[in-house]
């Protein structure tokens, strides 16, 4: 790969949410010399209105590459490709609009959930409320990496959802 991962970029006061990317081919392709990625904390259940989606598209056309990834494996809105000097203005614009950075690095990753009771008659509990409350309570852990590895929480209201755990229980 011709990408260098630059963990030295970010926004003031946050340790997560920005994934630094530099290309060693910047001389040949100047538009990708700096191609940082921003993760945006998505709303519970991934419910958006078109006004907010248009706003993100406009912001990214102005300050980034215009490329987005809606809910990659992280669940976040992923804004692909911007330069270091654009990070603070992007963060300021998002904050004024009520949006926050998602998790990245060795921290709590952005919690995610299904649409639960909003669309499913079989939901066992309000997964969106649980995800929202969890996110609000642990928001600081999304921004200031304090763990030796990443932690991910996904809330599913479905009685048919399997649970997986990436470690062994002590008794078994």
Automatic annotation (TrEMBL):
It holds the Pfam family NIR_SIR_ferr. The keyword Transferase does not apply. Keywords: Iron, Iron-sulfur, Metal-binding. One of its GO terms (molecular function) is heme binding. Residues 104-160 form the Nitrite/sulphite reductase 4Fe-4S domain. InterPro entries: NiRdtase/SiRdtase_haem-b_fer, Nit/Sulf_reduc_fer-like_dom_sf, NO2/SO3_Rdtase_4Fe4S_dom, NO2/SO3_Rdtase_4Fe4S_sf. It comes from the Bacteria. Residues 33-95 form the Nitrite/Sulfite reductase ferredoxin-like domain. This is Dissimilatory sulfite reductase subunit A.
């Amino acid at each position: 790969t011709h990408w260098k991962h630059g963990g030295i970029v970010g926004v003031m006061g946050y340790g997560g949410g920005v994934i630094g990317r530099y290309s060693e081919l910047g001389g040949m392709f100047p538009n990708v010399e700096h191609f940082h990625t921003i993760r945006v904390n998505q709303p519970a259940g991934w419910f958006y209105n078109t006004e907010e989606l248009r706003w993100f598209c406009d912001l990214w056309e102005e300050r980034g590459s215009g490329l987005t990834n809606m809910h990659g494996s992280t669940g976040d809105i992923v804004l692909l490709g911007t330069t270091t000097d654009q990070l603070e203005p992007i963060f300021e614009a998002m904050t004024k609009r009520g949006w926050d950075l998602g998790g990245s690095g060795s921290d709590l990753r952005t919690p995610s959930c299904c649409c639960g009771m909003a669309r499913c008659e079989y939901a066992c509990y309000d997964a969106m409320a649980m995800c929202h409350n969890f996110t609000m309570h642990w928001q600081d852990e999304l921004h200031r990496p304090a763990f030796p590895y990443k932690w991910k929480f996904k809330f599913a209201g479905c009685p048919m959802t399997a649970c997986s755990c990436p470690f062994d229980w002590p008794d078994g």
